[in-house]
Design brief:
The chain is α/β, with parallel strands linked by helices. The chain has one domain: Creatininase (Rossmann fold, 3-Layer(aba) Sandwich). Helices cover about 45% and strands about 5% of the residues. A four-stranded parallel beta sheet has the order 2-1-3-4, with helices on both faces. Helix 3 links the parallel strand 1 and strand 2. Helix 3 packs across helix 8 and helix 4 crosses helix 5. The longest helix has about 35 residues. About 40% of the residues are buried. The N terminus is likely disordered.
């Protein structure tokens, strides 16, 4: 064999081996993605997209409803104003995808509204969800201030008083907070969440390359670690995954805490005459 032919044959063999290795690595990567949480949000657990038979079937399978809360608020130049509700809603959709239950549409109220007016409105919402048949109501706020959690829990008190329904208000990371799950204001964690869930809504170029203040004060209004250095879609994926997992386990725990006869979907049918609206 001529040297040129020998080299050619070996180059082809090496190229073939490299191609095979790349194909194997790609297959491994795809396999890993199959087991990892995905960013797409299923419409099958979101109440506004469900048909009556789907809503009824979901309630009978796992009579839990998740209610996300947030507000329209400054989140740096690089993130959407509705970040908090978008984040809470998406985490709850991921929770319902794995643990079942249904997710109510985001509620854009916050503790800056007059509570003497707002808490009764939320109590009315929770009572209506109770009459729909749900046994567990979990309100989750993406706006991490005590006032909003207090507002949710106050509204739940008269709803859960008879012991036939369990409920709780949480921040999205109340149960999962740790090295891989946290929150801030438009910094590492909230930017990472959006990079994973809604990458098209994030524009890091808006932050520029120069110094920015990270103490929540003007002009940047960001609080936490510099998102340009610390944020990533992978950090957001893990944060969402851990939060969703923790909330789902809490839902199971709350349902199990009810008397045995109070753990089933408490509505004869999702149909006119028995149910119409929330």
């Amino acid at each position: 064999m001529k040297r040129r032919d020998f080299l050619g044959a070996n180059v082809l063999a090496l190229a073939g081996g490299a191609w095979a290795a790349r194909a194997a690595n790609a297959a491994d990567a795809r396999s890993g993605l199959d087991t990892a949480i995905q960013s797409q949000l299923s419409p099958d657990v979101q109440m506004q997209f469900m048909r009556p038979a789907q809503l009824e079937a979901a309630g009978r399978k796992f009579p839990v409803v998740y209610v996300p809360f947030g507000l329209i608020e400054w989140h740096g130049l690089h993130l959407p104003l509705g970040n908090d509700a978008l984040k809470a809603h998406a985490i709850l959709v991921k929770c319902a995808e794995k643990f079942n239950g249904v997710v109510y549409p985001p509620v854009y109220f916050h503790d800056g509204f007059r509570k003497e007016h707002l808490v009764p409105v939320l109590t009315d919402l929770f009572q209506r969800l109770k009459r729909t048949g749900y046994r567990v109501i979990i309100g989750v706020s993406g706006h991490n201030v005590p006032g909003q959690i207090d507002m949710i829990n106050q509204a739940l008190v008269p709803v859960t008083a008879d012991g036939t329904v369990a409920g709780i208000g949480l921040w999205e990371i109340t149960l999962s907070r740790g090295p891989e799950s946290g929150t801030d204001h438009a910094a590492k964690w909230e930017t990472s969440n959006m990079m994973f869930l809604y990458p098209g809504l994030v524009d890091m170029s808006e932050l520029g390359d120069g110094p920015i203040n990270l103490d929540m004060k003007p002009p940047s209004g960001i609080g936490g670690l510099d998102p340009r250095q610390h944020a990533s879609a992978e950090a957001g994926r893990r944060n969402v995954e851990l939060a969703a997992e923790s909330i789902g386990r809490k839902a199971q725990e709350l349902l199990a805490s009810l008397p045995e006869g109070q753990r089933s979907f408490n509505l004869e049918a999702v149909a006119p005459g028995r149910w119409w609206l929330i």
